[in-house]
Amino acid sequence: MTFTEVIGQHKTKEDLLQMLRSERLPHALLLLGSPGCGHLSLALAFAQYLLCDDRGPEDACGRCRHCLKSSKLIHPDLHFSFPTVGTNVLSDHFLADWRNAMAENPYQEINDWLQRIGAENKQGNINKEECLNIIKKLSLKTFESTYKVLIMWLPEYLGKEGNRLLKLIEEPPENTVFILVAERQELILNTILSRCQMVQVPPLDDDSVIAGLVEKEGLSADQATMIAQLVDGNFNEARVLIRQEENDHAQLLLDWLRRCYRGNGVELVDWVDEFSGIGRENQKHFLRYALHFLRELTLLKAMSDQSGSDGKVRLPARELETARRLAGVVELDQLELLSELLTDTAYYVERNANPKILFLDVSIRMNQIFKRRLALLQPRNIVKLEERTSLGLWKRVLPG
């Protein structure tokens, strides 16, 4: 991949190029950004630029033997490490899948990758054997190029195994460059962070997302603009929206909200039984969507209360209509409680909590948050009270 093929991120590209021009290339770079911002694409482009035989001032040539091999991710001096599942499993075992995944979508997220390799209910990690394999590979001399490059995607999955790489990162062999591509700085060992030069990669701006969708996905400018307004600079999410007429997570969330409001124990148990079987990574992805929906609903509620306007709420039309209805029957403090509850839930899912117990408890708590509104209403007019709290209202708010 060349820099020209990377969507947007012009300042970050220039920063990376300037490091090499000024002969101040660090031996360990950490590209830190949010999912779908293009930091993995930048890492691939910078690696190809380093390996290129005939690089220009702004980009790799794209024609030399090094570029041709790098573009296919088969260059012998370009190495990869990424989360996998299973005991004693190495990234090398999944290289064919990795090359296909990068060819299809270099903006992929961790859930996409783990589902591709059949993770199901297992969580990914970068294990001890992988670290030892990295040390072994990078101790060898370069095969064809001046540089050896290791791209590690999501070093936060190293955990404490990252201690095994400290000496190698601090004192690598000559002309060896580490490029770490991360999303959650707080999960990376401080001892690794201190040995890397960090480059902050911002989310893509709307104009870059629009240009990328028009060029790479063949959308019209109007279609691309509508999608760009929904994805907060996440190009992977934009690709997902293109391929889904209706967001599956949206329907699942609305169904859950309906059941939580009704508080029927049998319905809640049935929903939890089905949901607990979709796998931990999908559960995390769902919770991230739910928090996004609540965040946009909170914005909608605040803007509507103050000015009667929807503001710039980033939700598709169908979900926006539901959010408008919800905004009329929930208060800001309730939305805050729901957001805190789902944030805690995501934390416990990360730590392998039993999904059936966890989500049943969360469902009951959500019911309590919804029903708390009844105690706050003063029944000065019994007709209005019944109208506002009846199940019929919530059937209109959450159709189905």
List the helices and strands and how they pair.
Elements: H1 10-21, E1 28-33, H2 39-51, H3 65-71, E2 78-81, H4 95-104, H5 110-116, H6 128-138, E3 148-153, H7 166-170, E4 176-182, H8 190-193, E5 197-201, H9 206-217, H10 221-228, H11 235-243, H12 248-262, H13 265-275, H14 280-307, H15 317-327, H16 332-350, H17 355-376, H18 382-389, H19 391-397
Parallel strand pairs: 1-4, 1-5, 2-3, 3-4
Helix pairs in contact: 2-3, 9-10, 12-17, 13-17, 14-15, 14-16, 16-17
What does the model show?
The chain has 400 residues and is of the alpha/beta class. The chain folds into 3 domains: 3-202, P-loop containing nucleotide triphosphate hydrolases (Rossmann fold, 3-Layer(aba) Sandwich); 209-240, no CATH class; 246-397, Zinc Finger, Delta Prime, domain 3, CATH 1.20.272. It has 19 helices and 5 strands. It has a 5-stranded parallel sheet with strand order 2-3-4-1-5, sandwiched between helices. α2 runs antiparallel to α3, α12 crosses α17 (355-376) and α14 crosses α15 (317-327). The longest helix has 28 residues, at 280-307. The radius of gyration is 24 Å and the shape is globular. Mean pLDDT is 86; it is low at 374-396.
